[in-house]
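Team,

Forwarding the record for the chain on the shared tracking sheet. I've put the sequence and predicted structure together so nobody has to dig through attachments.
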Amino acid sequence: MRVLHSRRLPGEGEEDVMDDPARYEVLKRWGQSLALRQQERRLAKRDKPYRPTSTWAGSLGYRCERRLTYERVIPWARGPLSAELASIFEEGDLHARDVQRELAELGVRVTLQESPFREDRLEISGKIDGAAAVPDVGQRVPLEIKGLIALPGEEDGAELAQSEMALERRFFAQLTLYLYLMGELFGAFVFKSKATGAWKVVPVALDLEHAEQLLQRAEHVRDAVVLHRLAVADTGWTAGVQDAPSGTVTDEQMARFASAVEVGEQVLPSRIHDRSECPTCPFRKHCRPSEAPVDPALLVVDAELIQAIERHQATKPGRDEYERLHKMLGERFKLTGGDVFFAGPWRIEKKKHGAGVRLVITSIMDGSESDAA
């Protein structure tokens, strides 16, 4: 294939520029190598020994205290950090720095940028993206900067606390704890669209009740970590189990290590009853929630489960009636010659659908349409 618009290049004389398969392949390999080097660089920056001595503020948005304890006592069980996740973390930092730069350009005074903090009594740690001086509100309004694919709608920040998405609950937990531990009443999320760069700023007021729940969760995890260490120490495995054995390890050492881990499991917090956070938990292969039966006594008083069953059963009669009529209409018109019919205010049309047919029922009055079979 020739280049559509040939032109003279320096040193090429009058020759046309032609496709050069060899040079193209060199360029292709260079591009692949460059992308791989970027992945490796980002992974190397993030893939470091992980031995946490505290619970990350944002992690307290998870409801499962067992997961939070796993993070502290056997971090190796989550498996190695993937190149994709390392890149996501790196992008988050880049977006935060971009927002901080643009805030300064807009004349917003931001302090405490990327400032780490730790609450020693409950062993909570975090890193504040910044605190803005907002006239008539405060000199240090905590800011949390998050890059999102799609910006949130009109809901306020408090709705994130009860979100079905663990990520949004983590956002709210993080900012709530910053507000509480800094003694501030108001903060804000700055959500940045990864597609357009546009912002949505969502104000948040300190929710003392929710803060108390998060602090209790942190306290439970702290105490569970202590119990776990004591249980492991009682086995005689003095090295602890925060690091998995590496290097030359005998079968006896591995057996003793596995025994210590198993003993430690017995004092961990219970698994979350509804298992809602289990599918995406990095510890699920170690925890094996599907193999752990739920205590029937707990189900008897599980208000959330009871409400879900009540809603499910309330919709059943309507669904059953719909399914029965759905089948009846399909059979009725399957055995009726023709393709288009009228019944009162309804227009019924038979259309081919795979090896069979389906009915499209349209209201003559308002033009609304539905599939019946």
